[in-house]
Amino acid sequence: xxxxxxxxxxxxxxxxxxxxxxxxxxxxxxxxxxxxxxxxxxxxxxxxxxxxxxxxxxxxxxxxxxxxxxxxxxxxxxxxxxxxxxxxxxxxxxxxxxxxxxxxxxxxxxxxxxxxxxxxxxxxxxxxxxxxxxxxxxxxxxxxxxxxxxxxxxxxxxxxxxxxxxxxxxxxxxxxxxxxxxxxxxxxxxxxxxxxxxxxxxxxxxxxxxxxxxxxxxxxxxxxxxxxxxxxxxxxxxxxxxxxxxxxxxxxxxxxxxxxxxxxxxxxxxxxxxxxxxxxx
Length: 281
What we know:
- With 281 residues, the protein is an alpha/beta fold.
- The chain has two domains: 4-121 and 269-280, Aldehyde Oxidoreductase, domain 3 (Alpha-Beta Complex); 155-261, Aldolase class I (TIM Barrel, Alpha-Beta Barrel).
- The chain is built from eleven helices and twelve strands.
- It has helices at 4-7, 11-23, 54-64, 93-123, 142-151, 169-175, 178-188, 201-210, 222-232, 246-253, 264-267; strands spanning 38-45, 49-50, 69-72, 79-80, 84-92, 130-132, 165-167, 194-198, 214-218, 237-241, 259-261, 274-280.
- The strands form three sheets. It has a six-stranded parallel beta sheet. Strands 3-5-1-12 form a four-stranded antiparallel beta sheet, covered by helices on one side.
- Helix 9 (222-232) links the parallel strand 9 (214-218) and strand 10.
- Helix 8 runs parallel beside helix 9 (222-232).
- The protein is elongated.
- The protein starts with a helix and ends with a strand.
């Protein structure tokens, strides 16, 4: 699980790139405002949401103008209502307007991920299942979105291709079989989790016998998921994947699988509607 501390070192560079593509050689529209003019900005959410992205916003304003001050009324993981104030910002009117879009882009996107994650987490309350994200993230925002998922009450799958094995159909074919693939994984990277995707109960038994830590049940029926739980009997963790919908989510959770992976947590997010309004001091 990614924590706030895990992603701090990545934020400055992400913000630097965002400002480079937005501000470039300078904000020519902001230059219309007198350099000495000071202002206060109020940022609100125009819809109910789960907030995520406070540290990215802080970094944007800091890089644009270190003299700007922010007064947050919420924090990551907080649920907000429509028209609720998220934070106040004070300082140079030019700087506030230059920072606005990059800051809100991070906040609206990460809050969207957290909000969707909370909606899914609420659907399985009362079950023991953990909902997992996937690698279907926005380029450059992998760690940020996976952190946002945790703010919404869901959990992280592997971060990327480097921290855990996920042996799928093509890997199995190229390696010569499930047993061979798992054995090679253990030899290549001892200690790293090994997950195997299976498409039948026969393959489930092969993965169990090979010693997989986690077995992904790809597009299994509810009946076969329940059979898989009985067959596995705690010898490995089970993850359901593929074709997960609002209608099937809770029935799948109730089969007894340990995890359900859902790409929609990070790829079906609609930006939260935010607004910043400036007032002269």
